[in-house]
Amino acid sequence: MSGGRLLVALQGVLFLLVAVTAFLPGPTLFASLVLGLGFVVLGAVVVVWTGRSLGRSLTPLPEPNGGGLVASGLYRWVRHPMYSGLVVICLGVAVGVGVVWCYLSVVVLCAFFAVKARVEERYLVRAYPGYADYGARVGRFVPLLGRLSTE
């Protein structure tokens, strides 16, 4: 299994972890079904929007598929809005149930996406000559935060 496919498999396992931990008994933190549902809907809108923006470039793998660099739509402000949207969905699940283990699984998912984004960006810098400049202007997961260093 290639490194990219391994990352996709691990991503699936982490989504499953969020789902399973939502049903575990244990200590709870803040819980709000309404707020959690709001996060899920917001994240879903972001995921659908970014999927449509990517078009042929959409792939779960960190390696570019030759569809071209997309810097429009949400990609004008964030380099990885799909990952951001997926985290917001999972955060919505955690907020909806309030179980500590679910919140912790979302933290693990965030750490995973930080690693996957770094791996993906190494490929993107090699594949697209303008990616480094784009990354220096645009935040990684939220606008303005996590811009690439030009040094």
Précis, in short:
This protein is mainly alpha-helical and 151 residues long. It is 62% helix and 0% strand.
Write the layout of secondary structure elements.
Blueprint: H1 3-21, H2 33-54, H3 81-97, H4 100-127, H5 131-137
Description:
This protein has helices spanning 3-21, 33-54, 81-97, 100-127, 131-137. The protein has one domain (27-137): Four Helix Bundle (Hemerythrin (Met), subunit A) (Up-down Bundle), CATH 1.20.120. It is globular. The mean pLDDT is 93. By secondary structure, the chain is mainly alpha-helical. Helix 1 (3-21) packs antiparallel against helix 4 and helix 2 runs antiparallel to helix 3 (81-97).
Summarize this structure as a short list of keywords or feature phrases.
single chain; 151 residues; mainly alpha; Four Helix Bundle (Hemerythrin (Met), subunit A)
Largest sheet: none
Q: Output the number of helix runs.
A: 5
Number of domains: 1
Instruction: State Rg.
Output: 16 Å
The overall strand count is: 0
